[in-house]
Each structure stands twice: as structure tokens, then as C-alpha cells.
Write a structure and sequence with these properties.
The chain has four helices and 24 strands. With 407 residues, it is an alpha+beta fold.
């Protein structure tokens, strides 16, 4: 009996020796105070997500879990006023800081920064495929999360069948269903609109008989509305003064129709006619291995960051990502550049055989996320942010070019 007791004691000591503590603190960024009484769930990444434990924050917003060490981070889920906020953390490391916001069913200062639409038909012209990206900004002050039955609404063409719908905040991309409303062709999302930027991505198909009327209106003000279509498809706006027709040398045989500062009441409908598919790959404006034409500068990390954009994009400065990403969706079948691999951190060096442009692209994505995070937290001045983003945009553009040319 004594031997069994000693064995049990040794076992418990060994378990305690390998267990570590994951600590964290939850800060309410609406009130700038610790968030007390929030439910905290710790999840482990495995075959899906497994609940490890639950607790609540104390009066100082603190929480802790005693768990075995892990190679991959645990995921902390904090429930605050009906909205879940997540953060990754490793046991034994520094405290996990989670920012939450008070929720409201009515939040002002929400607008669509960018709404991009790409259209193409099936080879026989019987089906129209559409892909749309909405970048929604919540600039409420003090910051609050919009939470309710209809947080974001959008209009799709008559007869549209949604094949994919997702939403992204930061590096997290989730499937998020759209539900039809009582108004024809109007759909709604229930995904909470947190302070900062939220991106909605929708893919759909529509039966097509050679012509179709499309009305991409919104209930919110839209900073930039862009429609992209192969030049074999004629786009005829109802109000020709709304859109500016333009092209980009990188994307041959594609026309872009851009409208700026679109109000909720403005008429932005257009008719399309004809058929055509997006090009399979974007045109390369320069040899990506040698950098910009005539400059003799490398396109890789370091010196490439400082090269100015000598060919302005159709959209305002710094918007190459908005333009290029949309086109790459349909033209090259590329993955959305803001989507990061959640299970594999970016390596400092690339493995043998791995394409250098892929490594650079992943690194640049991480830099973009960090830059946006610093901006949202007020850690960087506006002028410094614009300068850094311009340099990152140019370098990321070159990385995408090299990755596309390597395929």
C-alpha cells in the first residue's frame, strides 16, 4: 500500500513537472479598462479544435490555465457581450493579451472602403461567374463592435447562386454564410463587424443568356467600386459619368471600371453583354528577376523596398493589392494574398527546392498584417504608415509577379 502511494506521488510530481501555465489578460478597448467576468475557453489545435478548459477573467481581466507544453500555440477564445475574440499563446511564455470591444446593434462610422467585382462567363457562355470582395471599415470612436441579426448587407445579380462565402479579419479567414432578406437580391451577414477592417469574399454563378443587368448598390458609402471583366464582355453603365474605364498593362485583355466615393443613393447599375474568360495569368510588365525596367535593381528583399512605383495604378496610391488580388482570383487561380497559413509559421530560411518568391510572399504578408496591427493600435504615425505600406505594396507586387511567372 505504501509503495502504491509513493508511486502515485511520483506520478503526480512528474505530471506537475511537465505542466506549464498559460496566462493572459483581457483589455476592454472601448472603456480602456480590464474586462472582468468574460468567459475564456482554451482550445488545442489537433483534429479540429479541442476544448482544453474554461474559466472567467477576474477583476483585473486576468485568466490562467495549467496545461502540458505544446509545439503549436493554444487558441484563447474570449466571449464578450456575445462576440468571440481570439488570440494564440504558448504556455510558459509571456501573458496573452486579448483586446475586446463593447457590442452594439447600432454603430456609426462604418463604410465600405473597397468593393471589387470580377466577372467572366463559362466557355459556352451559358453561365456567368462572379467574385466580389468587400473591405468594410469600422472606424467607430470609441471603438465598438457591430453585433446583430444583419451586420452587413449586399446585393447580388438576379438568380445568383452563392457557391462560396467567407469573411476575414486580420489573418483569420472563416466560412460565413449569407442569408437572403425580404428584399429581392439582397443578402445579409450576421458576422460581427469589429473595429478595424473586415473583408467579405463571395463567389456566385448566374444563368446567363448573353446579357445581364447588375446593380451592385450598397446601403453604405463606398470609397472605391471596381468592376473587372475581360474585354470581350461589354460593360455599359446606366450612368456613364459614374465609372472611369481604364486598363492595367499587367492584365492584358481585361477592362476595369472604377467609381470613387459612391453614396448609398448613387446609381451604379450596369449591363453586361457578350462572353469571355479572364486571362489565365497576369502579364509581366518587367523581367521579375531584374526588377524595374532600366533600373538594374534587384527585386528581392532589401534594396527593392525603396523603389518608387513608376507606373500609377488605376486606383489611388497603395491600392495595387486591391486591384491585383481580385484579378489573381480569377485570372491565375491564386490564393487570396491576405490569407496566411495558420498552422505553419513563416520560416527564416526556405527549405531546399522551395521557391524563393513563395517565401518572400509569405514574409511580406506577415509584414502587412503587423503594419496594419500597429496602425490600429496607434503604434505608428500616419505618415510613417503610408511610407511603409507603399514600400511593402511594391515589394509584394514583385513577389507575386515572380510567383506567377514560376508556375
Amino acid at each position: 500500500m505504501k509503495r502504491a502511494g509513493i508511486t502515485l506521488l511520483l506520478f503526480l510530481c512528474s505530471v506537475a513537472a511537465v505542466a506549464e501555465t498559460l496566462r493572459g489578460v483581457v483589455q476592454n478597448s472601448t472603456t480602456s479598462k480590464p474586462s472582468a467576468g468574460d468567459e475564456v475557453t482554451l482550445k488545442k489545435i489537433g483534429n479540429g479544435m479541442e476544448d482544453v478548459g474554461k474559466t472567467k477573467t477576474n477583476a483585473k481581466g486576468e485568466f490562467s490555465f495549467t496545461v502540458p507544453p505544446a509545439q503549436q500555440p493554444y487558441i484563447v477564445w474570449v466571449q464578450h457581450q456575445g462576440v468571440t475574440y481570439t488570440q494564440a499563446g504558448l504556455p510558459g511564455g509571456g501573458p496573452v493579451a486579448v483586446r475586446v470591444f463593447d457590442s452594439s446593434t447600432s454603430v456609426k462610422d462604418i463604410s465600405v472602403l473597397e468593393h471589387a467585382i470580377a466577372l467572366q462567363t463559362s466557355p459556352n457562355g451559358a453561365t456567368l461567374s462572379g467574385e466580389e470582395i468587400f473591405t468594410v471599415a469600422n472606424q467607430s470612436n470609441p471603438p465598438r463592435t457591430l453585433y446583430g441579426p444583419h451586420t452587413f448587407t449586399l446585393y447580388l445579380p438576379d438568380g445568383a447562386t452563392i457557391t462560396e462565402s467567407s469573411v476575414q479579419t486580420g489573418k483569420t479567414q472563416l466560412k460565413a454564410a449569407l442569408v437572403p432578406t425580404s428584399e429581392k437580391n439582397k443578402y445579409a451577414s450576421v458576422f460581427p463587424i469589429r473595429p478595424g477592417q473586415t473583408q467579405f469574399h463571395i463567389i456566385y454563378t448566374v444563368p446567363y443568356a448573353g446579357k445581364l443587368q447588375i446593380d451592385p448598390r450598397s446601403d453604405l458609402t463606398t470609397g472605391t467600386l471596381m468592376v473587372a471583366a475581360p474585354d470581350s464582355i461589354k460593360v455599359s453603365p446606366s450612368d456613364a459619368s459614374v465609372y472611369q474605364n481604364t486598363t492595367n498593362p499587367q492584365f492584358k485583355n481585361v477592362n476595369f471600371y472604377v467609381a470613387k466615393n459612391v453614396s448609398a443613393q448613387q446609381k451604379v447599375a450596369f449591363e453586361i453583354a457578350g462572353k469571355g474568360e479572364m486571362p489565365r495569368e497576369p502579364e509581366q510588365a518587367a523581367d521579375p528577376a531584374r526588377g524595374a525596367p532600366g533600373r538594374g535593381e534587384p527585386a528581392g528583399p532589401g534594396g527593392g523596398l525603396g523603389v518608387p512605383n513608376e507606373r500609377p495604378d488605376p486606383l489611388h496610391s497603395g491600392q495595387w493589392l486591391f486591384l491585383g488580388v481580385l484579378t489573381l482570383f480569377l485570372a491565375a487561380g491564386a490564393t487570396f494574398v491576405y490569407t496566411a497559413n495558420q498552422n505553419a509559421p513563416v520560416a527564416a530560411t526556405h527549405a531546399p527546392g522551395q521557391d524563393r518568391s513563395t517565401t518572400l510572399l509569405e514574409a511580406m504578408k506577415e509584414e502587412v498584417f503587423q503594419l496594419e496591427s500597429d496602425r490600429l493600435q496607434g503604434k505608428i504615425k500616419p505618415d510613417d504608415y503610408q511610407a511603409a505600406k507603399s514600400a511593402l505594396d511594391k515589394t509584394l507586387q514583385r513577389a507575386v509577379q515572380r510567383q506567377s511567372s514560376a508556375k
